[in-house]
Every structure is written in C-alpha cells, then in structure tokens.
Amino acid sequence: MIKKIGVLTSGGDAPGMNAAVRAVVRTALSKGIEVYGIRRGYVGLLTGEVVKMDERSVSDIIHRGGTCLCTARCPEFRTMEGVQKAKAKCDELGIEGLVVIGGDGSFRGAADLSSLGMLCIGIPGTIDNDITCTDYTIGFDTAMNTAMELVDKLRDTSQSHDRISVVEVMGRGAGHIAVNTGIACGATDIITKEVPYDLDQIANTMLEKKAKGKQNFVVIVAEGIGHSAEIATALQEKTGIEARSTILGHVQRGGSPTLRDRVEATRLGHYAVELIEQGIGNRVVAIKDNKIVDYDIQEALSMTKSYDEKLHHIAEQIAY
Ligand code: ADP
Ligand code: F6P
Question: What does pTM read for this prediction?
C-alpha cells in the first residue's frame, strides 16, 4: 500500500505540465495517497525543497503555461552520488514513488533512481515531441500553435515587402514542430535534419515560382539545422530577393496550454498514479494510437522515433 509519493517537473518547461501536476496530485489524493511537490526538478530532491500538496495547491493552474513546481537542469543528478543522495532524501521524507514530468534526460535520471529501488514513473513533457516511445508529448500542440500564429504575423510583413522570410522554430534535434508549422502556415520550404536539402535547388525553385508571379516566400527552418541568418543571406544572394531571418525562440515554450495539451496531460498524470498505486515503477507512460500505455524506461529510451516524411513531401508538393 503506497502512502506517499512525490512529483517533479524537469528539463525544459512545457505548456500542460501544470495540468499533469494537477492530475497527479488530485488522483493521488482521491486514493488517499499523500503527495509532495518537489521544486526545481532533481535539484529539489537534493536540497529537500519540497512542499506538501493539498487539493487547493493545484487550483487555478490548469490553464497556465510554465510549471508551478519550477524546473531546472541538475548536473549533480547525472552522477551516481547525486542519485544516491536523492534516494536518501526520499527515504528521509517517506516518499515511496516519484512521478517525473520531463524529457529523455529526465527519464534517464528516473531510470537511475529506479535502480536504487524507488518507484519512478516518467510522463513525457516537452514541446519538441522527440520522446521516442510516445506519439505525443505534453506541450507540443501549444508550441506549434504559438509558432503558427507568429509565422502568420511574419507572413503579413513578408508579403507586404515581397521578401523571403526565414523562420527558425524550436525542436532541439527534431523537425516535428517545423514540419507541422510549415504545413499549417503554407510555407514554401521546410528545412529539417530528417530530409536532405539543397539551398541552390531551393533558390532556383523560388526563382521559377517568382517568374510565375509568386512574390513572397516563407521558409521554416528547424532549430537542429540552425544557421537561419546564414540561410537567409544565402537565399538573398542566390535569388536577388530580399530576405530576413527570425528565430522564434522561447516564446514558443510559453502561453496557456491548448485543449489537447490539457487533456493529454490529465490522462497521462492520472495513469501514472494508477501505476504507482499498484506498486509498479521504472515505467514511462505514453500515448500510442490514442491509448495510454506504459513501457520500461530503458526500453522506452532505446526506441527510435519516426519523422513524418510524408507530411514533409506533401508540403513540398503543394507549395507554389
Ligand atoms: P529533458 O528531460 O527535457 O530531456 P535534460 O536532458 O536537460 O532535459 O535533462 C533534465 C535533467 O535530467 C538533467 O539536468 C539531469 O538532472 C537529469 N539527467 C539528464 N541526463 C541524465 C543521465 N544520463 N543520467 C542521470 N540524470 C540525467
Ligand atoms: O526541449 C525544449 C527546448 O525548448 C528545445 O526546443 C530547445 O532546444 C531547448 O529546450 C532550449 O533550452 P533552454 O531553455 O536551456 O534554452
């Protein structure tokens, strides 16, 4: 019978993390399990920065971006001494299970803590949607919608000046935000690491389209490619069309979560507590074909995630 669990958010924040924390806290309390909120990710587990959560502690957060527990990156937790210290702190506080909301890095930490006997459950939370075992990560939908709105605004000015607008979106090494934003914004070109590209070919195609009357171009560049300023300069030189580059940056991580993020975060948070309640640990909860499932953490970390190349090629095919 599990009596006390902890919950923390770790790595980059993502809209919807609050909804996940709320679901974890309220589900646990409804089952008579005490919950401690651990502040600043694994840092709080080392320093003992923990707060007892009651029903009201998660009121008025479901619609807020960021994370009420704060988040951090914690180099000390990458060492086995750090993990042992964290386990000792959990033992001292009587915490028997831990819900970790974060990305791959945070799950590696959870696997280490699991190896010392702590019941850990990972919930995928990152705007990048780059966690291999799940179709969806908390924050992805909100971030894409934010990126879409911002690119729409850039398009207005790009159209007015007959320019090329090169826009870099987040995603760490992955192009999932880029390809979806590109489709949604009617981008002329999408440049991601997953699909080979050639700037000469992109420039030539732009000139062909210009000859047929097209006046402005939106190019979405994934963060993993980077160099968006250089790409803009190169395209300007190769085409003679004026170009500007914009890096959307951390604005993509903020804002009120979309309905999808709130709902998925709630489903995942609820399921995570159901696992811990049964004494199950060392699992990552995930969404597969719209069902909530769970995997062994190591197995989850070793999976490979596919990129939607079909979507990428559709975008290329219909960009005129
Ligand atoms: P994310 O969880 O979003 O991938 P990070 O990679 O920054 O973010 O990881 C968040 C935290 O998880 C790190 O600061 C560290 O405390 C912990 N962590 C990351 N990688 C490992 C690892 N290999 N072993 C143990 N802990 C790790
Ligand atoms: O993982 C989320 C993310 O926003 C990535 O898209 C980006 O590469 C990274 O975090 C930025 O991290 P930081 O907040 O440390 O600048």
Answer: 0.97
